[in-house]
Design goal:
ATP synthesis, cell membrane, mainly alpha, membrane
Length: 167
């Protein structure tokens, strides 16, 4: 049979209540506080990770935008350089054409001057030959045969001098 002693039951119940309160105060309370601290710490880390992810996505978008901008800027710079090079090429070609035109004009002028000089020299030589022929005709008082030979001689010399200057 079981003997139940009332004061012993009350004392046991009081001991259990005191034990429960002490356990709650010294064991369950600190453990709960530590769990709460860890929960707050984990939530903070999750929040930081979420913020870091958002920041990383924003940076990624900024980098992609700047890369696209750089690509566009590079294309613009290349187009501008091509246009400048084309303009410079055109300018150089025009300068070369003008320079070539001047050289051709100078050459034509030189040829014209040389031709005129050669004509003047031939005219002076022909005049000299005519004077020589006239003096021979007058000095010899020659006959028709002599005049004919002088005429042929004159033509031969005039033709020879004309041939040598034209070469």
């Amino acid at each position: 049979m079981l003997n139940i002693y009332f004061p012993s039951i009350v004392f046991t119940v009081i001991n259990l209540i005191v034990f429960f309160l002490l356990m709650k105060k010294f064991l369950i309370g600190p453990v709960t506080d530590i769990i709460e601290q860890r929960k707050v710490l984990v939530e903070g880390q999750l929040s930081n990770a979420s913020n870091a992810e958002k920041t990383a996505m924003e940076l990624k978008l900024q980098y992609e935008t700047s890369i696209k901008g750089a690509s566009v800027k590079t294309d613009e710079m290349l187009d501008s350089a091509r246009k400048r090079a084309s303009a410079e090429y055109e300018r150089l070609v025009k300068e070369a054409e003008v320079s070539a035109g001047k050289v051709i004009d100078d050459a034509e002028k030189t040829v014209r001057i040389e031709r005129e000089k050669a004509i003047r020299e031939m005219q002076s030589e022909i005049a000299g030959l005519a004077i020589i022929a006239a003096t021979k005709v007058v000095s010899e008082n020659a006959s028709n045969n002599t005049n004919q030979s002088l005429y042929e001689d004159f033509l031969k010399k005039a033709g020879d001098s004309n041939d040598t200057d034209s070469n």
